[in-house]
TrEMBL record:
<keyword id="KW-0472">Membrane</keyword>
<keyword id="KW-1133">Transmembrane helix</keyword>
<protein>
    <submittedName>
        <fullName>Small integral membrane protein 22</fullName>
    </submittedName>
</protein>
<dbReference type="GO" id="GO:0051726">
    <property type="term" value="P:regulation of cell cycle"/>
</dbReference>
<feature type="transmembrane region" description="Helical">
    <location>
        <begin position="38"/>
        <end position="64"/>
    </location>
</feature>
<dbReference type="InterPro" id="IPR031671">
    <property type="entry name" value="SMIM5/18/22"/>
</dbReference>
<dbReference type="InterPro" id="IPR053081">
    <property type="entry name" value="SIM_Modulators"/>
</dbReference>
<dbReference type="GO" id="GO:0030335">
    <property type="term" value="P:positive regulation of cell migration"/>
</dbReference>
<dbReference type="GO" id="GO:0042127">
    <property type="term" value="P:regulation of cell population proliferation"/>
</dbReference>
<dbReference type="GO" id="GO:0016020">
    <property type="term" value="C:membrane"/>
</dbReference>
<feature type="region of interest" description="Disordered">
    <location>
        <begin position="67"/>
        <end position="86"/>
    </location>
</feature>
<dbReference type="GO" id="GO:0032956">
    <property type="term" value="P:regulation of actin cytoskeleton organization"/>
</dbReference>
<dbReference type="GO" id="GO:0140042">
    <property type="term" value="P:lipid droplet formation"/>
</dbReference>
<dbReference type="Pfam" id="PF15831">
    <property type="entry name" value="SMIM5_18_22"/>
</dbReference>
<keyword id="KW-0812">Transmembrane</keyword>
Length: 86
């Protein structure tokens, strides 16, 4: 179990060194595909954040209304099963 954690630590250290090396060299992306993938990822995060903000605003300002219940015919024995009618 100890060797597993040491392997994970070594991998994390190597990854951190690679990221820091790219930051210091000012070459974060090696191709246009890397840049475009990062931009698409940022757009996705922006849309998710915008949707969460819209939900929060809707719930805080308008108040979350209770869902509307469907009107059903009530009888003493329960509800009518309309599928059984001819």
């Amino acid at each position: 179990m100890a060797s597993l954690t040491e392997d994970v630590e070594q991998e994390l250290s190597a990854t951190a060194q690679q990221v820091l090396g790219k930051l210091w060299s000012h070459q974060l992306f090696q191709s246009e595909w890397d840049t475009s993938a990062f931009i698409i990822f940022l757009i996705f995060l922006g849309v998710v954040a915008l949707l969460l903000l819209a939900v929060c605003i809707h719930c805080c300002c308008c108040g979350c209304p209770k869902p509307l219940s469907r009107s059903r015919k009530k009888h003493a024995g329960g509800f009518d099963n309309l599928a059984l009618e001819p």
